[in-house]
Fold:
Amino acid sequence: MNKKVRVRFAPSPTGGLHLGGVRTALFNYLFARQNKGEFILRIEDTDQTRFVEGAEQYIIDCLKWCGLNPDEGPQNGGNYGPYRQSERKAKYQQYAEQLIKDGFAYYAFDTPEELERLRSRIPDFQYGSNYRMQLRNSISLTDAEVLELINKNTPYVVRIKIPEDETIRFTDMIRGEVSFDTSDLDDKVLLKADGMPTYHLAVVVDDYLMEISHAFRGEEWLPSAPIHILLWKYLGWIEKMPQWAHLPLILKPDGHGKLSKRDGDRLGFPVFAMNWKDPKTGASNPGFHEMGFLPEAFVNMLALLGWNDGTEQELFKIDELIEKFSVEKVSKSGAKFDFEKAKWFNSEWIKRQEIDVLMTEFTRQLKEKNITTPDAKYLEQVILLVRDRLVFLNDFWDQAAFFFQKPVKYDLESVKQKWTDPKTEFFQAMIESFRQETLWLSADIEQLFKSKAEEKGIKIGELMLPFRIMLVGGKFGPQVFEIAALIGQEETIGRIKKGLLQLE
Structure:
């Protein structure tokens, strides 16, 4: 690769960060790191009508949680700033005027009401070569008329002048050769009446001035590609245009259409990286982070939505993704989102996560439950026993509460139906045997329990479930003798006594 690799993630601060947006950031990040390049965050906030207070910081927080830290951006600066488009307004005005001067763009004075009337009267109306001369713009009007309108402060937009009957081609890094017929295009607005640029002008100007070498973006932007190519050409920058890669859509679980927030609401899973609360409406949307996903699992899952390295490997650390990522192996077709698979990634990463990380997280959860922080060794042993049973980090309390407090409820209905006096006698005898045990190790507890069952002539299988419920409260948890060993001798005896009272 000859030129310095510089890529950008350029979200709009309009709300929650969809997992498709995070995947775009991830692929940019992987490509930059693989090629010793730079990853830039640029905030595209030119549409002030959709700007939402707090959304920019939310985007930054999401990237930080995922570990996708930009080299340049609105927070940490850089040599190519400012990194908010709203702070670059004068630059766009300058290039819009240059395009008009060179005959590649024009002023259009038509009001929104006038255009709406045309759209209602003419099916498939497009502002372009077929109708330009019938509308109020600097192509149909004389120079004197245009000057008069401008001097009167008549609102106007600047539109690109699309050429007739041309074919525009480019090579996409994912899709190969792509072509467009200009007869299918309209004269897009480049500069709005408030002086702010549209995406079309801003993205080209910013990519040029920030020396972006490669641009990964969603395939929904593919129809805009010919507009952008023309702008790169008309501004004299075509030799410096970035290489593009239009990423496949993330689809609904059934594969029919793009995954949306409504799909997540309907099917019961998040589509945003982190919780998002709209300050205008008060509406809240759940996030993967707060649901209990590890960032490693979330990033791993996203990487495999539309990409694989050609092997059977599914679990990748970020360093492995950086090493193995290749644009050639990104799929052209959409990737179906599978929440069950996402949960699998998370459970596998919890099993592999460093104990220190889990201890920090679970200590926080215990504090929220007003549980006194346990001894570090004790907490570590609890984690080692239950982590294989966790799908989400938030499952910890449900799976481990009995290690920190006595059961509150007992799921004894099925046990009561088969309860007998000999079983009561067995557990009373076990209390005495346990009191005499000195080592209190799981293997010794198990041997003692089985020997006493054999002595009493009761099948071990009839006693294990009641014992578990006495210690845990329900029909779940890790190996029951491990539980007894960890909660301790006195606690085990106390819980058996309490359990027997529940069975009377």
Remarks:
- Residues 354-397 form one domain.
- The radius of gyration is 32 Å.
